[in-house]
Write a structure and sequence with these properties.
31% of the residues lie in helices and 22% in strands. It contains five helices and nine strands; from the N terminus they run αβααββαβαβββββ. Strands 1, 2, 3, 4, 5, 6, 7, 8 and 9 form a nine-stranded mixed beta sheet that branches. α1 packs parallel to α3 and α3 crosses α5. It is globular and about 55 Å long.
Amino acid sequence: MQLTSLTAKAKEALSGLLSTANLEPGMIIVIGCSTSEVMGRTIGSASNMDTAEAIMAGLLPVAREHDVYLAIQCCEHLNRALVVEKECKDRYGFEEVTVIPHQDAGGALTAVAMRQFQDPVVVEAISAHAGMDIGDTLIGMHLKRVAVPVRLDIDSIGHAHLTFARTRPKLIGGARAKYPS
């Protein structure tokens, strides 16, 4: 599998999500990623730093161009904590936790985020405005309450299945309530 292809696919996927989800600057996108799944292996069995570097090379420039925050979800060994920019943590009032994610506890993409983010910190939980799940890592716990599936033409990166979501405010009221279209 060519790493340049992974970079291009990650860029295409995040660009597609951003164009569909209508995010505003400063909003958060949670990214879950199993590099094992990308490489055609079982989740958690073959974490790969080269694969993570290639995927981040597609994600980070797009996020910066659109002025949105990435929140990279750790694996279950770190209770799905997230690597975010300190600025994001401060802006949204997230609680920082003490751990250093690495390839074998947290996952390869979180290890790359710790090196490539400007001022990375780890937080335990967030409520993101949208999400991209690479390899069925289960990002739903970090999305705002009303998640809406997003369907894009791209449905995989490498061998990993892609799932996308955006969020919207709750619709409240009853039979007489009106909602914007």
